[in-house]
């Protein structure tokens, strides 16, 4: 507890980094022109609602909304399931054509873009933003205003083989950067594993693993008033250099085969990796009976704080809706703690509402409970319209750093130049 105040200060700074807080405030910007958040009537929902949702959520959601329809007999919810790989283009086309649904599941990194296109309705005051995890709520806020709610969340932890760690003389999970590196090296040298840890060497989405190390080090991606990118911050350079060390020291594979993380973890070839809760079922299937007792998960290692990436999906109501009140009532229903627990049972999606984690179905699972703990210090990228382009530039430079030994400082200077050229939208 001796570092609690320092940690709290670091957390406050990082929340300011993304320009948001659980109360929907931005660290900078002009609040006088914030869109009004119109009230929602208190009666029963009526009429027809159209909703889009991706992947498994789109398939399972119709069963969940039956209770909402039962509670509101004069409303009908029509859910359309759409594939993730075509969802972004489908949304932007619908926004341009004015044919959006009433409400939808929206990827967290799309919020800034869709708000920039003036497509989303501000979140009404009927929904209390403080009930959500701070990092998750932050993904809904653009320029001081919330434009949706977190629906479900995910974050990343360190998965590690406890049996191989024990063989290497390690009985406790690493808690620091140095500890993670040393443990990976020991599992390779003394535990008999081919590699110490599996890390993504660049390519799409690698920023989701690398940027948390920057946040952990007190680094920033943008300045506090959201006017400039700060990728070349020395703290970010130090974090990327640390990430690079796993590859230059031969602890992580520079060219891993795609789709082999679970198999390599089960075989012991790569006894550590960083990923989300969905991997629990995958590695246990790969490992077979009894494998659940051979691994554990640990919070992300700490420099200034233990930081991780917060992902998942949000719910948003489109401005074009002709049934706004009913749409927000459905959003409210989907984010009550009772509904969130029920949805977890149906989909295994982790609740964005903090009180839902008090349910026995979540807190009784020791591994799962650690994801709930990590969510308290999990952060999102800044809500800029161009994040998809900017992150692609970052991913490309991470690949050069890990595979060809490019200097991390030079790589981040390139990202800084490209991001500045792309702009924030």
From TrEMBL:
GO cellular component: ATP-binding cassette (ABC) transporter complex, substrate-binding subunit-containing
UniProt-recorded Gene Ontology molecular function terms: maltose binding
GO BP, sorted A to Z: maltodextrin transmembrane transport; maltose transport
Origin superkingdom: Bacteria
Keyword Amino-acid biosynthesis assigned: no
SUPFAM superfamilies per the UniProt record, alphabetical: Periplasmic binding protein-like II (SSF53850)
Keyword tags: Signal, Transport
Pfam families tied to this protein: SBP_bac_1
Signal sequence coordinates: 1-24
Family in the record: Belongs to the bacterial solute-binding protein 1 family.
This protein's name: Extracellular solute-binding protein
